[in-house]
From TrEMBL:
It comes from the Bacteria. The chain crosses the membrane at residues 6-22, 34-53, 59-76. It comes from Paraburkholderia guartelaensis. Keywords: Membrane, Transmembrane, Transmembrane helix. Pfam families: Phage_holin_3_7 (PF05449). This is Phage holin family protein. InterPro entries: Phage_holin_3_7 (IPR008473).
Length: 88
């Protein structure tokens, strides 16, 4: 992998997926629809990381920025997908 943008995006996708996997409820209610959204988000992040590992030449600035923003949002909510879905 010689593209630094691809490496940045790959690390961001992997860290975001690991943060969702490491989420602890700590007394929060279990909501089925939020669990499904978290699972789908995890599948998309993992699939994007796998796709980057296979096709690293096609990464541009915007995809790397999108990956970093995903990671920032997920770490900002501490892996809580329900907090990401909550309306302001």
């Amino acid at each position: 992998m010689h593209n630094p943008l691809a490496l940045i995006a790959l690390i961001a996708y992997c860290l975001a997926a690991l943060r969702i996997l490491a989420y602890r409820r700590d007394g929060a209610r279990h909501r089925q629809h939020v669990s499904w959204v978290a699972w789908l988000l995890l599948v998309v992040l993992g699939g994007s990381a796998i796709e980057l590992a296979v096709h690293a030449n096609t990464v541009g600035y915007f995809e790397a920025a999108r990956a970093v923003l995903f990671a920032v949002f997920i770490f900002g909510s501490r892996g809580n997908v329900a907090r990401l879905l909550r309306s302001a």
